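Practice problem: predict the structure.
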Amino acid sequence: MSLFGGRGRLIHAAIGALVIAIIINGLGLLQMDAGFNLLVTGGVLILAATVDALSRLRTGGVRT
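Answer:
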């Protein structure tokens, strides 16, 4: 996933959707509140975006 758009593969999007579905399903099975579900999902998305941005800085720019 990239903050700048236009990068990535279909398989990576599918893996991301699967991770979000697992989070939603797991928290539902644990009978957590919907607000907590949104907090956890948002935290995972922010973490993924941060890791992507830091890896791009470390490699010296945008990868093709």
